Amino acid sequence: MSVISRFAPSPTGHLQLGNIRTALIAYLFTRSKGGKFILRIDDTDLERSKDEYTESIKADLSWLGVTWDDYRHQKGREAIYDAARDTLIAAGRLYPCYETEDELALKRKSALGRGLPPIYDRAALKLTDEQNSAYVADGRKPHYRFLLEHKPIIWQDMVRGKVEFHGKDMSDPVLIREDGTALYHLGSVVDDIEYKITHIVRGEDHVSNTACHVQMFEALGATPPTFAHLPLVFDADGKKLSKRLGSLSIATLRDEEGVEPMTVASFQARLGTADPIEPIADMDALIKQFDFSRFGRSNPRFLDEELFRLNAKILHHMSYAEAKPRLDAMGLGDLDEVFWNIARANISRFKDIKQWWQVAKGPVTPVIEDAEFTAQALKLLPAGPWDSTTWNTWVNALKESTGRNGKLLFMPLRQALTGMSHGPELPNLLPLIGPEQTKERLQGKAA
After folding, report:
1. Mean pLDDT over residues 303-323, rounded?
2. Counting beta carbons within 10 angstroms of the beta carbon of residue 430, is it exposed (0 to 12), middle (13 to 18) or buried (19 or more)?
């Protein structure tokens, strides 16, 4: 069977690490099977869906390297959902209900107060024609619920193994709003049938939805797809990552934090598996390695420090050929391969390279607060050629000569060489500055 899967976000906010993980894993699985991957925008919620979020979703996926073979919207497919509604009504699987939100809330509260699960009592099925007519005459508009069959609902999940629900333990889900528009459940199942989706990857918070969907697929004459429910990603405090809270959006990670796309991909592909989180060269390598059997059932934790450590490793392995177009775009066309290979091991974000280049190549206006000390430093400056050991050789000689150590020793040197009180690590920076510029800066000359 040819694999066809989809990522179906609602354009009600920006993608963040939690839902981009679902997209990535669905993509990796599909590509590993040589299948077709569909991006479907589930935008039936006209009030909350925004075009700007749709464009943001597409931009974030493209940046990550997730490509799609087909692109669809739910908006504009109302007639198709209406037809499915009519089919279910004719089959006796969709029925009108007239309870208000307040009445339903009271029922739930009453059930909980009696120690019962807050399952809808199907009171609407017991209404007489006269009672239904009275509601209509009163101006009430019905919402429609799907009539679940009271029988076992079982499927073999690619992550969770055997999953079993029973229809009698679940509330009949609402499929049609009072205004006649289809809710997520109906639109999703109808589209999955039409686009011949064979595999659905989603978060474990959709497991109970899936149980309802299984019966909906069957009621509409279709075989349910194969499902994979991924454990939810929690933050360091054990809270679910939420796009509504704007936590860790891809746009923020990319534009503000300087995280690389392969950092996110490598991190997310291994998160929740027994495999070590390590830098992966490209998306093709992740596709070849992908295997659902590696994912566990526990909720993985996202830790900022892990992501940023991985980002640094990704950059430390980046070749000059990969970096060159981005260096040119930053106005660093003169930055050569020798400089890149030395400096890359000391950056955690790509843009950090600019600071290294500026400090190393100048011009830098030295800050000299103790001319006697910097004169002594100039006198003890090691002869070239310089390498990674030069800094320690130099400062050890200065320490012995002046009796200084700690901040009193290092800060005057940093201020003289960089014009700043903070910045790149000097042991790695010194060989890049070179002997001639170092001498000039120690003499207080801008260089």
Report:
1. 94
2. buried
